[in-house]
Structures are given as C-alpha cells and as structure tokens.
Amino acid sequence: MHPVRVAAAAVNQTPLDWEGNLARISEAVQLARDAGASILCLPELSITGYGCEDAFFMPAVAHTALEILDTLRTRSEGLLVAVGLPVFCQGSLYNTAALLADGVLTGLVAKQALAGDGIHYEPRWFKPWPAGVVRHIPILGRSIPIGDLLFDCGGLRIGFEICEDAWVSQRPGSRLARRAVDLILNPSASHFAFGKQRIRERFVLEGSRAFHATYLYANLLGNEAGRAIYDGGTLIAAGGRLLAAGPRFGFDRVRVLTAVSDVDLTRVARAMAFSTQAALAHRDDGVIPLGFTPPRVEPAPPREPAFDGMGKEEEFTQALTLGLYDYITKSRSHGVVISLSGGADSAAVATLTSLTIEGAYRALGHRAWTAAGIPPTLPLAEIKRRLLNCVYQSTSNSSTVTRDAASAVAEALGARFHLWDVDSFVKEYRRLVESSLDRPLDWNSDDITLQNIQARARAPGVWMLANALGALLLSTSNRSEVAVGYATMDGDTCGGFSPIAGIDKAFLRQWLHWMETAGSSAFPPIPALAAVNAQTPTAELRPPDKTQTDEADLMPYPVLDAIERSAIRDKRAPAEALSEMKAIFPQYSPDQLLFWVDRFFRLFCRNQWKRERYAPCFHVDDENLDPRTWCRFPILSGGFEEELRRLAAGHSSSGEAPGVSSKDPARSCEPGP
C-alpha cells in the first residue's frame, strides 16, 4: 500500500489583486497543511487572476507574479504546491503551473492546448507549448526547467493537464500515462455554464481510469473579472473511481478538498494494462527529480462520494447570487438600484439581488457586507432595505396591475420601494419635440418615438438615485430581447451591469414560477411572485386600449429562442432555420413561421449596434450574444436581404410572405422599443 493525502483548492481571485490573491492562496496552503495533505493543486493562473486580459502583456505583471511566487515558495514547507502564473520564455508568454516542493521552485509546466473558443481568448496572450519540449530559463537567480515536465518525488510521478489540455482529443494525460504517471494535477479556470460540471466529471473520472492515475481537479470560484462565473468545483478521482467532490458555488473565498489515494492500486491497474516493453520504449526526457517525498498516511475508509446533481434552476440561482455578490463587492458598490416594472425581468433581477444579500449574510455574517458600507450591527432586514432599492416609474400607460405587483414583490423581498410618476417628464419632452417638428406626435405615425420616450424618461432618475447612494444600477434586459433589440437604448437598457442579458425569457419565466412555488435548496419559495407570473409580458409603452404584449410585438418567446439558437448558435441560414422551425413547431403554419424567421433575421442584423452598447452581463451558458466575448457580428451588413427575399419568393409570388408588411413597425428603419 502507498496511501498519500492530496488536496485540491478552489479560491475566489481577482485580476491583479496581488495582496488579496496571495492571502487566499496562502490560506489554502495552510488549510491543506492542517488537513494533513502533502500535495496541493491550486487553480489556473491563480497568482495573477485568470482574467487579466491585455494586462498579461505588461512585463510588470509577470515580474510581480514571480515575486509572489517567491513568497509562496517560502510558505510551501513540507508540501508540494502547484500554483499558476504567466511566464515569459524566449520572447513569448506562456500559461504555466509552478510546482513548489518543500520551499523550492522545481519547475514550470506550460499549457499545451489554449482555449480560443466561446468566451475564451487565450491565444491572444499566450503561446501553446509544444509537446515533449523542455527549456531552462533564469528565475529568481536560478535556472529553472520549463515545458512538458514530469516530476519524480521519491518514486511518485506527478504530471499536469492545465484546464483546456483535458478538453482536447490529444490530451497530455495519454502521453503521461505512457511515462507511468501516478498523479495528474489539473489547475483550471473553467467558467460556469449550465450542465458543464457533468462534462468535467466525465473527463476527470475517465482520465483517472484511462491513465491509471490519481487525478486532482481544482477550479476557480466566483465572479473573478466581471462576466464569467466560476463554480469552484473540485474533484479527486483514482482509477475511474470518485474519491471526493467539493461543493460548488457559495460565498467562501477559499475551499480545500482532501482525499487519500493509494497509488499502488493504480500502479497495479497500469501493470495489468501495459507491457513493460511498451513503457520502457517511451522516451523519458523532462523528468525532474525532487528532493521531497510525500509521506505515506493511514489508508482512508471506503466511501461513496456523490456529485451534487443540481438542476438548471438551482444552478442558475446559486451561480447568479454568487456572481452578483462578487460584482457588487468587488466594484465597491454600496447597494443596488433596480427599476422595478412589475414584470418578469425586473422581478427576476430584484429576486436574485435579495437572495444574494441574504445568502451572503447567512454564509459570512456581518462581514459579508462591510465592503458595501453596512455597519456590523444591523439585522438582515435593515441590510436589505439599505442595499436593495426598487423604483416603480409610472406613466399614463402604466397599469395598477404592474404597480401592485411591483409593490408586492418589493415588500416580499425586503427592498426599499419607491413609487415615482414620470408622466410629466414624458409630456414635457413631447412638447419640446412637437415644437421643433411644428406638428403634433400621434400613435399612428410616431409609435416607436412615443414608446421610447417613456423608457428614456425613466433613466435619469434611477441613475441619479444610484449615484446618490453610491449604488450599482442594474439593467433588466433578457437575452431574447437582446437578440432582436427589443429594448430602448438609454432607457430600459441603462445600468452598469445586466445580470440576465444572457438568459432567455422562457427560462426566466420558468425560474420565477419555480421560485414562487418550490424555491431553491437555500431559499424558501416567494409566493408574492404570483402577481408577476400571472401576467402576460408587456412593455406597457402603448396606451391601454392598444393591448400591447411582448409576444404580439415579436413572436412567441419559445419560437424566438429556437430561431436564435438555430441562427446564431448553429449558424444556420434563413432557409435552414425555417426548415428546422417547421419540424419543431408543427402547430404553426409555414407562412407564420416564415414571418417570424424573417423578422428575427432582420431585427438581429439591424440591432447589432445595440448589443455593442449593452451593459456587461453574466455568461451562464455557452451560447451568449455578447459581441465582446462570444458572438461577433458586423454592425453594418447586408442583413441576409437576398436570402430572405428568395425565401419569401418561394412562399408568395409577391416576394413577401403572407402577413409580412414592409410597414411593420418591427421591420421599419427605427428598431422597436
């Protein structure tokens, strides 16, 4: 038997927060030491923070990271500690994991597969390290090996797969296995997306089985740099069997997961799977002998750890409350202001904020909100009233239904509720513009103009309140609206951050019903949300007799979301998207589906400029529309005009689908509200 206690840490880091990042890494090292572990794996680029972006190019960043590494070296006595940092080598920058062994920097393993898809942009900053290559560079007064390394610790062989290395077909682990690796460390910065943890679980378990090794996976935790949320899941497996799984999400800044692995068991499995000749035939360059041997420990009793098994609603709740907490505190905001309309979107944002305030307080106590200027003696109810300000702003087109719903939700959430009437501002703007036009504005010819001014008249007041409070103004646009520009720029889009701009409307409504009736594992249901859930979504920008609804202005939200996934995620042309919609929605006529496909493509293309101006948002799946990090599209384009014209001609000799009017407001030169 050869049992060794190993540890994987999740830490909540911030780019370029040198003092804070060092403190959290040091805490993780001490927690691992206190738990009796001899080997600790920390997340990817945890010294600098993963999301430094173009600051990685600053030589001072790499230099300071090395200074921090030297400090950590002195704190690694009695341990093997893997910690990530950027390192320059021969004029190029590499994403590396340093292995510290009992106070000595022994080597730097460089990442071989860079993440360049989705929201990741690693090839902009780093170069991929070629397999099998080792160099030496001067670091801290010594010549240190860097590259594709394997470490020998008293006969225990340790290798690395750094995040993306494990997601590609040619995994470094397969080469490590041929070199008789015993332990694979995976320092990662893998952002949260719905269901993504299942993929991580599979490659950790499969890697430990196929490579006949113990596998440690350590991920970042929290909203590190603004958009991406990291769930902090840590995993330890051996020989295809899960040894330990750490909790995900949560408000703790540091978590350490430990387990005891008997490396002799995986060595036996390797001996049964590989011939000695095959192992000896492989070149064994780049093996770094260490003057440190991890001590053997008492074998651990057998147990069956389980994965968390969270559903989508639970993942959404925990991810966004964690992300909001970090965004509020790291931006040094003294609370949040939300324009609460009484509809689903603003109710979802207000609910998430209230859960954030409560969840952080329960987990961390009074220290959770000291950074937001909250005295340490206030009870939770008063903390909520100070941090969460909701404003209902009525015009002549607002209804008592939405006003009462907003009031009921704010009260249930413990928010401070403000009731404002902005109709006088709308009328004054209308008078000013009519005097300049020398004609009256009316709903027949100026529909979009009269809708937009109501939304824009609401912006200055909430901005002013947020400024006076030193608070963060949250925008409430959802992803379905983002796709087609169904929002008023400088109106309902105003805000410093947009938490739900990556979430489609259909799921938001589903989540609100879930929160009304079931609640999450951490929070009880909120019955007051029934006042919101009972409504048909509406912007309430037209007069009441117009009976405006979102889906009448656009299309049914499930259809809109399906077209968006087909056109944007799957890159299907209009004709292909229409064929897919016919299969998905047989209850609608082909002409009706053509009308909606035509509308989606035109509005998507026309409103790229709006997406360029939306406030930053969270990435909660890998199909986001954020043009700065995921979905790039030209602001000016032909807009699929020829494709749509051909498609319409196939359905109607006039060249337009039945029911499609060139005067349709949603297709006019001015986008819809």
List key phrases describing it.
673 residues; 7-stranded mixed β-sheet
Structure overview:
With 673 residues, the protein is α/β, with parallel strands linked by helices. The chain contains 23 helices and 21 strands. The strands form 4 sheets. Strands 6-7-5-4-3-2-1-16 form an 8-stranded mixed beta sheet. A 7-stranded mixed beta sheet has the order 15-14-11-10-9-8-17, with helices on one face. α2 links the parallel β2 (39-41) and β3 (80-89). α9 packs across α10 (380-387).
Architecture blueprint of SSEs:
Elements: E1 3-11, H1 18-34, E2 39-41, H2 59-74, E3 80-89, E4 92-101, E5 104-110, H3 122-125, E6 134-139, E7 142-147, E8 150-153, E9 156-160, H4 172-178, E10 183-187, H5 196-210, E11 214-218, E12 221-223, E13 229-231, E14 235-238, E15 241-245, E16 254-262, H6 263-273, H7 276-281, E17 287-290, H8 312-330, E18 336-339, H9 344-364, H10 380-387, E19 388-394, H11 400-413, E20 416-421, H12 423-437, H13 447-457, H14 459-469, E21 472-474, H15 479-484, H16 505-517, H17 530-533, H18 550-553, H19 557-569, H20 574-584, H21 590-606, H22 608-613, H23 641-649
Parallel strand pairs: 1-2, 2-3, 5-7, 8-17, 9-10, 10-11, 18-19, 18-21, 19-20
Antiparallel strand pairs: 1-16, 3-4, 4-5, 6-7, 8-9, 11-14, 12-13, 14-15
